[in-house]
Amino acid sequence: MSSQITAYVALVCTSGVLNLYLCLYAFVKRYYYTNISNLFIFYTVSITIYCFGSAFGLMATTLEQIKFWTIIEYIGMPFAPPLGLLFVMRYVGMKIKKKWCIALLVLPFVTFVMVATNDFHHLFYRKLEVDPILGVPYIHQEIGIWYMIHGVFIFSCMFVAFLLVLSNWKETAKVYRPQLISLMCGQLVPMLTAFLYLIGMTPPGIDPVPMVLWLSSLLYLWSIRSSRMFTIMPIAKDAIFNSINDGVIVLDESYRVIEYNHSCKKMFPQLTKSMFGMDFDDVWCVLSGDSFPFELDTTEFSREIELTANQSTFIRFVLQYCSMLITVKVY
């Protein structure tokens, strides 16, 4: 085995080991987490199978062995993107219906069957052979119609998952953003690598995607350790935050609006998400039609004012950490 192949195998095995560790970690801690950990377990299992199948394929010495380990790879690889999408959907608070799961997992199953039976129909690979110049384990392949269908599907899954995470960035407090970074990279890294592979900008005859998955795995591990991913999630925080009967507006250290709950929206229908990032003075002017009656500062624990409208509104300002929570009570 050449030193170059040895390096490839080492990178792929690193990705496989890290994903196996993440899988076992989530499995052991599953009773302490929410149901989202189950999706993460299946997601990392599929990536682990993909990585180790690829590693053994790189150590193959015949075309038959390469085909066998390619089939093993596809036990996991086509399922990873849709499972990743389901994981992200659950993470951002979307309710996942069974028919969605079935719809997303049917095509990967068909892909696996197509790869396993490719010698009979050649719909996935029109040609799969040892590269005549580089030799084993490098392969020369010509893709078939189902390979293109499969490619569009997995790219769509990863891209939609990336967009779902990105769309929640502005509304997510800074303490939770490391989780979003890891989730975005978990989708973006393999997507970009696969794209570079398809346009011929990676080493020929070798699938480079498993070689870079260790990066997203490390980011997942960092997020779990640093921001307690799964145990404290934005969706769990949102459920508590929006269940508060009192209206709450959250300001950052510069007194810009970064969040409000459902109760506050009911009290002030003018509030919109487009106001995120605006100075509270400007937002208050929109809400009340007047400038704010006093300066916001951190020297006092609470302040009170009263609005004269259809009903009186008692507003108390409470400082917590580096953010300001504005609690609104209607009497």
Write the layout of secondary structure elements.
Layout: H1 3-28, H2 36-58, H3 63-76, H4 80-91, H5 98-116, H6 118-121, E1 125-130, E2 139-143, H7 145-167, H8 177-198, H9 209-226, H10 234-241, E3 247-251, E4 257-260, H11 262-267, H12 280-288, E5 304-307, E6 313-320, E7 323-330
Antiparallel strand pairs: 1-2, 3-4, 3-7, 5-6, 6-7
Helix pairs in contact: 1-2, 1-9, 2-3, 2-4, 3-5, 4-7, 5-7, 7-8, 8-9
Describe this structure in words.
There is one protein chain. The chain is of the alpha+beta class and 331 residues long. The chain folds into two domains: 3-236, Rhopdopsin 7-helix transmembrane proteins (Up-down Bundle), CATH 1.20.1070; 242-330, Beta-Lactamase. It has helices spanning 3-28, 36-58, 63-76, 80-91, 98-116, 118-121, 145-167, 177-198, 209-226, 234-241, 262-267, 280-288, and strands spanning 125-130, 139-143, 247-251, 257-260, 304-307, 313-320, 323-330. The strands form two sheets. Strands 4-3-7-6-5 form a five-stranded antiparallel sheet. The protein has a two-stranded antiparallel sheet with strand order 1-2. β5 (304-307) and β6 (313-320) form a beta hairpin. α2 (36-58) runs antiparallel to α3 (63-76). The longest helix is centred in the N-terminal third of the chain and has 26 residues, at 3-28. The protein is elongated, with a radius of gyration of 26 Å. Mean pLDDT is 83; it is low at 317-323.
